[in-house]
From TrEMBL:
Keywords: Membrane, Transmembrane, Transmembrane helix. It comes from Carya illinoinensis. This is Late embryogenesis abundant protein LEA-2 subgroup domain-containing protein. The keyword Transmembrane applies. Residues 73-175 form the Late embryogenesis abundant protein LEA-2 subgroup domain. The keyword RNA-binding does not apply. The chain crosses the membrane at residues 15-38. InterPro entries: Lea14-like_2, LEA_2.
Amino acid sequence: MLESEKFKSRQNRKCFAYIIAGVVFQTIIILVFALTVMRIKTPSVRLGSVTVDNLNYSASGSPFFSMTLNAEIAVKNKNFGHFKFDHSTANVSYNGNAVVGYGDIIKGRAKARKTKKMRVTIDVTSINTGASDTAKLSNELNSGNVTLTSLARLRGKVTLMKVMKKKKTAEMNCTMTVDLKGRAVHILDCE
Ligand SMILES: *[C@@H]1O[C@H](CO)[C@@H](O)[C@H](O)[C@H]1NC(C)=O
Ligand SMILES: *[C@@H]1O[C@H](CO)[C@@H](O)[C@H](O)[C@H]1NC(C)=O
Ligand SMILES: *[C@@H]1O[C@H](CO)[C@@H](O)[C@H](O)[C@H]1NC(C)=O
Ligand SMILES: *[C@@H]1O[C@H](CO)[C@@H](O)[C@H](O)[C@H]1NC(C)=O
């Protein structure tokens, strides 16, 4: 074999190696992209701060409580595209099953990698709601703290790069205690 031919074949092998390396590199880039930017995650929704107005309650006689909760609801969207959600309702329940109030969550949009905060007003009353375990309610009111749960389900769509759309539902499940004397709400836990 001539020296020049040997040189040529060595060059060819080198060239081939570059192509392989290029393909591997591109594949890695695409994989990383698919696993981060293109992966659509379910947005989360939780209660931020909650304040209480018009608090009224009685632990004796027929025990009851009523109040207006002013809640800040935060929709956290970790996606690289916006999450647009429909109008929905947040409900507040006492003792697991008695729904004591509803609040409107107006439709909106959480921008890419942003948290959208909204104010929701929830009128709460235990009267005529099935919060009928009067002994338990009376005890709880006497203890100074009432535990409430708030649930919401935000149905919507995440849009990536203006064309890829995927339905996602963000769910809220938060437990809070209302400190009756202090007229303050402490968020205990948001799933
Ligand atoms: C609290 O509730 C009682 C009993 O329903 C009522 O008589 C009273 O007017 C209420 N007070 C306020 C400030 O709403
Ligand atoms: C009510 O709950 C809060 C938060 O869990 C707690 O700090 C406070 O001591 C409780 N108050 C009473 C009277 O139990
Ligand atoms: C309370 O809200 C949750 C979540 O949206 C829902 O699943 C549940 O049915 C609601 N309960 C009532 C009684 O509306
Ligand atoms: C809300 O979370 C509690 C635990 O913190 C769980 O026991 C309950 O089943 C959840 N409710 C819903 C409707 O997901």
